[in-house]
# Entry
Amino acid sequence: MSPHLSLQSVSYCYEEGGPQAVRDFTLDISQGEFVALLGHNGSGKSTVAKLLNGLYTPSAGHVLVSGMDTRDPKHTWEIRKRCGMVFQNPDNQIVATMVREDVAFGLENIGVPTQQMPGLIEQALKSVNMTAFATRAPHLLSGGQKQRVAIAGILAMQPEALVLDEATAMLDPSGREEVFETVQRLNKEQGITVVWITHFMEEAARCGRIAVMYKGELVMDGTPKEVFSQVQRVRDYRLDVPPMTRLAQMLINQGITLPADILTPDEMRREVLRLAHQA
Amino acid sequence: MPIKLENLSHTYQAGSPFQATAIQDISLEILDGELLALIGHTGSGKSTLAQHLNGLLQPTQGRVLLDGKDINAKDTDKRAVRFQVGLVFQYPEQQLFEETVKKDIAFGPRNMGLSEQEIDSRVREAMDKIGLPYDEISEKSPFELSGGQMRRVALAGVLAMKPRILVLDEPTAGLDPRARDFLLKDVEQLHKGGTTVVMISHSMDDVARLATRIAVLEKGNLDMVGSPQEVFSRVEHLTKMGLDVPQASKLRYLLLQEGLELPDCYLLDDLSASLAKYLKGGAAVVG
# Structure
């Protein structure tokens, strides 16, 4: 089966002859994958996100969405419909004065017949647990709720992939959890492919796969355990590892035998208890 | 004490149908030289409280005293208060506006009516304090810089006014791990250099690393004030409020549930030391 999202030796310059924001980037993502895209500020993550749904077209190389080349203008609308984007600031994504109307915005744009809208909107709001808020004013919602409305607006268009560009950066911990869990559920239950861009390493640790960018290039690609167990390398790329991975490293340095790829407090608890019982 | 809040309340749009009480009857002292972290759920009143500290918002009820004097009294020089209490908003880089980094940082000191010579020395000093290379970037446009550097330029603009008290509203939000680490080190240095710091943060690991005292806000009320040790030992209480706890506190709590009691701690370094000691000692699990 051909990959769902495919970046093939992609480079991108914002100005002709200017520096390459993305350089020779190759990555295949299968249908239903949940991929975290990490990288320092300015590493090119957001550029990749915008290349994925044809907001930008590559200066060199090709981006394919379900086999459709983003360079081909006749695919543009189909690609945007299939690959939805959520941005960082919830307030910049709200256009209507009522949640339901906000969700309808995308549908209107792609010319969905009016009589089909209510069903799609209802389904989308249900998917993000916002049904009860359908007639509320979006600006009075919490940050996490606003982001869920933004996601519903995309879901109504029945996309196959979601690209979220730091969708949790401006939220508090409970709002972050709310949005992450929603997206995780959509990925599991509806098989939607997810590209999750974040600076929170704990979130990346919960994704199925991590791709790391550094100065425009793809420098690491693997499972969270494969990536985060390389503590020094991850740090050299100006990122960090989850606190529990750091703790594992500290204990290993003190002569304790532990796996280097522990990611969460739960895993660490199990390892500590195992060691304690062994002794 | 530099700042004392007495029974402070603030109601937005009082008397209108949109009336909302953001903070209620808060009494709190900010001590000289401390680094006080303000934590709480979104909407708990942290930013509202912070904006009272330099008189940007005026209390609906209660008083804010700076060195014993009511900052909202008629005869108080408000400008002088703002030079003493520097407030750095969320995403402060959005407020950069000048053509060059140097001019942007000089904006505050220029407003203070200082001489050109003094302004220049303050700009250099502020940049030096937070590790921004003067020769390299002072003539650049602030908009050419990286996100992390822009944030530090905005911070330098406040530091150039030499505030005694620095109030930071989520200083690391949106930064990548390296930039966050740099910024926290800057804050740590400023605090060590004698500046009193009030820092709002959602990142409990950042708070654990820097704070000397923590105030927890819940729905506009002051829920508790205490040392990091005292506050972070109440894992269940904080979790119930929808707050995080530092990862070290979380692991210690999980182990405690299994009957393994390690010394109270909230920093990874301390936990690593006591865990290593425990595991090397080979003692059986308690209970």
Notes: Chain B touches chain A through 42 residues (CB under 8 Å). The two ends of chain B are 47 Å apart (CA to CA). Chain B has two domains: 3-228, 246-287. Chain B has a mean pLDDT of 93.
